[in-house]
Amino acid sequence: MGLARFLNSLSKTFVEPKIPSRCMRLFATHSQKSIKNQNFNLNSLPDLEFSFGYPPNVNLIISRSIHEDFASKKLPSEHYGKNPAEPKLEEEAARVCQLLSSRSDPHVDKLLENANIEVSPSLVAEVLKRLSNAGVIAMSFFTWAEKQKGFKYSTESYNALIEALGKIKQFRLIWNLVNDMKNRKLLSKDTFALISRRYARARKVEEAIRAFERMEEFGFKLETPDFNRLIDTLRWGKEQNLLRLDEIYREMTDEGFQPDVVTYGILIHAYCKAKKYDRAIELFHEMEAKNCKPSPHVFCTLINGLGSEKRLSQALEFFERSKNCGFAPEAPTYNALVGAYCCSMRIDDAFRVIDEMRKSSVGPNSRTYDIILHHLIKARRTNEAYLVFQKMTSEPGCEPTVWAQMKAKGVLPGMHMFSDLINSLCHANELDDACKYFQEMLDAGIRPPAKMFSNLKEALLDMGKKDIVLNLSRKIDNMRKTPLVGGGDQ
C-alpha cells in the first residue's frame, strides 16, 4: 500500500473517539397483551455492564484505561458472581428465549406449555438473564414459570427479573418484588445495589440514594462496602453527581465508617474521569495520611488521567511511586505510561516502554498497539503511522508482522485496530486481505462499526463482488440475532 493511499485512508477513517399485591398479576396480564403490540428485540446490541452488587474485581474495574475504547471488548458471560451455565442448560435457555422472541402470540402460557420445558431454578434464572433487555417478556415468563412443577423462588431469579424490569423503569413493580423477596427471606444487599444502579441509569439520583437508604428499613446493617457500592453507582452519572458523591462520602465518614482502598479508588477514578485531577491527587494524599496503602490500580488511574492532560512529569512520578511501593509494573500500568508518553507526543519514549515490557514479559498486548496507533493518527504523524501499518500488512515472505506476532502470542487485536486496518486495505484496493481480516473480526465476536462495513461494501460493489457483500451481510445479521446474556440500558 502506497503512502498516498494510506494518507487518504487516514483522512477518511479517523474519528475522535408499597402497592397492592394484585399489581403483579395485573402487570403480568398487561405484559401478555403488550407482547402483541410491542417489538421487544432480544437481540439488540447491549452496552457493557458490570455485575450487580460490588464485583470482586472492583479494583480492576476502577482502573480501566482511558484507552479502553481502543481495545477489544468482551460481553460478560455471567452475572451475580455465578459460574457460567452448563452447556445443556444454556442450550435449553436459548431455546426458550428463541421461542419467546419468535412469536408475538399474547398467550404465553399455552405457547410455553406446548414446548415441553422442564422448569428448574437454574433454567428460570438463566432465561431471565437472557431476557434482560425484554422486561415485559421476562415478567410474563416468570409468571408462567412460578406455576410450574420444579419451580423454586431464588434470589438470583428475582434479581434477574428486577434488572429486566428496571430497564423499562417499572420501579413500583420492582418494590413489590422486593416485598415478596423479604417475605420469602430471599432479599439481599445485592438487590438494593441493583435497584440503585437502575435508578442512576435512569438519571434518578435521589431515588438511587433513597434505595440505598431503604436497606436499613428492610433489616440490613450498613457497612463500608455498601457505601462503596453507592459511590460507585453515582460516579457513572453526569458531572453534577460529583456533589452528591462528595455528600455521600462525608456522610460515610461522619457516621464512623472508614474509607478503604476501594472507596478511594472509586473516588479517584471519578475525579479523574471529570478531569478534576488536583482533587484526585488530594484524595491520594489523604489516603496515604490515613495509612491506607494504594493499590496498583489507583496508581494506574492517576497515570492515565494525568498523562491524558499532558501532565507527564506527575504521571511519571506516580509510576515511580508505584514501583517504590513494591508493585511490579503490570501491563495496564505500562499501558498507562505508554499513553502518557503518547499524549505528550514522546513516541520514542513510548516505544522504549514497550521494549521494557518485553524484557519484563508483561506485554505488549493489543491495547498497547492500539494506543500508539491511535495517537499517531490523531497527531497526523502519518510517516510513523504508515510504518506501523507496513509492519501489520507486510507482504508474505517478509519478517513476521506485528499482527502475526500479536496473534501468535494469543493477543486479540482490538475493534479499532481491526477497523483502521480494514479501512486502509479498502482504500488500497486490497479487498482480499480486507475480507480476510473482516472475517477474523467476526470470528472474534467483534461487531464491526457501521462506517467501516459501509466502506468495505462500497469497495466490494465497485469491484462487482455483490455475492461477497451479501454473504458478509448475512453473517452480520446472524451475529445480531444471537441472543446475548446480560444487556445494556434502555
TrEMBL record:
Keyword Repeat among record annotations: yes
GO process terms (BP): RNA splicing
Start and stop residues of the PPR repeats: 188-222, 260-294, 295-329, 330-364, 365-400, 414-448
Residue ranges of the TM segments: none
Top-level taxon: Eukaryota
Keyword Repeat appears in the UniProt entry: yes
UniProt-listed InterPro entries: BIR6-like, PPR_rpt, TPR-like_helical_dom_sf
Keyword annotations from UniProtKB, A to Z: Repeat
Database matches in NCBIfam families: PPR (TIGR00756)
Protein name: Pentacotripeptide-repeat region of PRORP domain-containing protein
Species for this entry: Corchorus capsularis
